Known about the structure:
The complex is a heterodimer. By secondary structure, chain A is an alpha+beta fold. Chain A has helices spanning 117-126, 144-153, 186-201, 214-224, 233-247, 291-306, 312-315, 380-395, 398-401, and strands at residues 2-6, 16-22, 29-30, 35-40, 45-49, 54-59, 66-68, 72-77, 204-212, 253-255, 260-262, 268-270, 272-274, 277-279, 282-283, 320-324, 343-357, 360-374. Chain A folds into three domains: 2-109, CATH 2.40.50.100; 113-154, E3-binding domain (Dihydrolipoamide Transferase); 204-401, Chloramphenicol Acetyltransferase, CATH 3.30.559. In chain A, the strands form five sheets. Chain A has a six-stranded mixed β-sheet with strand order 9-18-17-16-12-15. In chain A, strands 1-8-6-3 form a four-stranded antiparallel β-sheet, with no helix packed on it. A four-stranded antiparallel β-sheet of chain A has the order 5-4-2-7, with no helix packed on it. Chain B is α/β, with parallel strands linked by helices. Chain B contains 15 helices and 21 strands. Chain B has helices at residues 4-8, 27-36, 51-56, 58-75, 91-115, 174-177, 194-205, 225-237, 291-294, 330-344, 374-379, 395-400, 428-440, 445-450, 460-469, and strands at residues 15-21, 41-45, 119-129, 132-137, 142-152, 156-158, 171-172, 186-190, 209-214, 241-244, 246-254, 257-264, 267-273, 275-278, 282-284, 317-319, 359-361, 366-371, 384-390, 406-412, 418-425. Chain B starts with a helix and ends in a 7-residue tail after the last helix. Chain A binds chain B through residues 116-119, 121-122, 125, 137-138, 143-144, and chain B through 348, 350, 414-417, 441-444, 446-447.
Amino acid sequence: MSVEILMPSLDPSMHNGRIVKWLITAGDPVNIGDPVVEIETDKAVFEVEAEVAGVLGEIRVAEGEYADVNSVIGIIREDGSDVIPSKETPAPAQPAGERKKVAPVPSPAGHRVFASPLARRLAALEGIELSGLSGSGPKGRIVKIDVERASSSKSAPATVTPLKKEGPLGDESGFLPAYESIPHTAMRLSIARRLVESSREIPHYYLTLDCEMDALMDLRVQVNDGESVKISANDFFIRAAAIALREVPAANAAWTENAILRFSRADISVAVSVEGGLITPVVRDAGGKGLALISAEARQLAEKARAGKLHPEEYKGGTFTISNLGMFGIKHFTSIINPPQGAILSIGAVEERPIVKEGQIRPATMMTVTLAVDHRCIDGATGAEFLAAFRRLIEKPVRILL
Amino acid sequence: MCNAKDRENGMAEVDFDVVIVGAGPGGYVGAIRAAQLGLKTAVVEAGQLGGVCLNWGCIPTKALLRSAEVYRQFLRAGDYGLTAADAGFDLSKMVERSRNVARKLSGGVAHLLKKNGIALFEGRGTLLGGGKLKVETSSRETIFLSAKHIILATGSRPLVLPGIEPDGQRIWTSREALVPEAIPESLLVIGSGAIGIEFASFYNAFGSKVTVIEALGRIMPREDEEIAHLARKEMEKQGIRFLAGARVTVLQSDGNEVSATIEKDGKKEELRTARAIVAAGVTPNVENLGLEAAGVRLDGRGFIQTDEYGRTSAEGVYAVGDVSGDPCLAHKASHEAILCVEKIAGLEAHPLGKHRVPRCTYGHPQVAGIGLTESQAEEAGYRIRVGRFSARGNGKATALGESGGLVKTIFDERTGELLGAHLVGAEVTELIQGFAIAGTLETTEAELMRTVFPHPTLSEMMHESVLEAYGRAIHI
Lengths: 402, 476
């Protein structure tokens, strides 16, 4: 009896994954739960475990290659007798980056999703893809609560437009200097796809404001005085954004095909740059959490992000994003909305500037923030109201502590 | 594992993986599961194996109620074309049978513990903290046990209300009511939960004039209103009197009678009966367990506070069954014990949802329910579909001569989720499990409609009730 190892689906938007490394070679024995192969998706690297015991019979997709979700990437033979112990890699390894389509081999049983009838009904009502959920029922069966959880963190059904194949840019000219060709990682492709989609489809508009930072910087010094773990300015911004979204709930919204979703809670995605790209882990319910907790969570999420160890539930489903380039001295910038969210806040550097107040020029600590907004779901006045609320909090930061 | 040889030598070991205090349906079931999982397990029990359920509750009452049921059939033999002219009863024989049934099953528990290599310490257990337990045996020996995991499954006992104190002579708890010497000419039952209703049915069957008092606004307050109402009407036909929204303020044993002062709607009524049964609920057995020393906290109602896996506020101490809170039912205790033990063993455990615990009352008629009642579903904000099917439309019920009954199903209109099912009538306590399985598997109305129910059975009423919720019942 042989059992196929299928490319798993980690979330509904995943349509393929790349084999990073086979952890065992053909002919090696495996037990249930043994890690067999390392897979990279656009979000994370994870290990696939053997679901049966036996012998790794065959490697169908070589390291570096891509395979579609649910296609066969290898074979485990439960009874090791009929194994041809071929120690050589069966398929010639394709150079990473050259996407070779691996034809899905239909498995005899098909890829079956185990879900309760009620979970199936709910998923259909909510437009949730069951194959993307992990089940909490017996043997991983998807039950009602799993769909409800996904539904409450879901903002919109993920629609993925494949990136159009475009000709290489001008390299026929022959006038380019020598270059190194860096193959696309899964993450790179995902970033490209999502941002092209966002910038093409979403009618962005931008709002910019300056905030006086003296009070917040003083407060931060007081808060951190004598503490070994410091709360960063960004932690204040996460909480301030969440409170401002609570005050202006119309700004905590997302556009979907059938309706505008207005969220009951502010889950703040925080852009974290990682090697080869960026990812946006989510601080859930930042309005309902204290600064210390937000700070601890944000730090932990950023560490996991950099280590490539985020779980899907840690980066999916935010309602609003914050991107901060202040540490590079950037004064002002705009961001592309992280779909399907409705807005993203770009935070610039905190710096001393001369300002005019009551006819006097005086020095002040300032910060410029820019909100990029999806006009389909958040109109200009609403965006402005949110940004003004955010500034009020930053300038009267004691309210952030409340 | 504490093997049989050790026990024969009287050299029980004192170090265990799991020690369970109490051998009721929580304790002994948890112990067997622990032993199955290879954990070295001991049980500490001060009373009888099987606990209240098996010795003084569920099981012996079912034995008595069986006598009542057969007797009722005798009395209506004519309905079936039979003659049973000399129908009569011998109470002492009924009680003896009931005690034998309990004894037999308690012996069965002893056998199961032995077979699974579980050490049994007969005595009272007290937590000492730090994974230590002191056991004082009936022969005044003291044994010290230590275990990484100690599970408290000490159960509950009848609640004693101020002014309504059982005396064991004329004012009974369920325990005295199980071993009567005579059928009292009249009987006051305080409380209309499962225990009160079952005793009311039993004594009524043998000629007691029974009055049931319920402090809440309606009888069987945990059950669906419509079902409880039908049950009440049926029992009233049999001659049981009900007073809901009434309180007994004074209850006194007075000569060979009991006198009760009952307050209802501001008016007082004096009632004199031969006997009274106090069945106003249960209270957890939390005393003298060393809870404070071990750092085990109680909740606001005096039950041991636990999480969904039975873990208490003290590391390594767990509580399951009645002692950890409502619903105080044997099957809930067993289920909690198993999931607590499986969690301890590191298995994937699935917390128990209270809406998945069925309730059964074995009066005449029987009542069973699971999940939300109609009014609870409405209060929870569901838009509901309700199906009803009466036993009058069921062939088997008619053939049995049991056409008083109703199966009621409640669905969430949006998702088709079975929110609740409530039944009254013959054998409904055996039917309810079908809806329990449906609930656990999360079926919708569609799978229930698609299921083939055998004909002719009472279970066809379940199918018809589901169909009726969607306007598709056949036999209406």
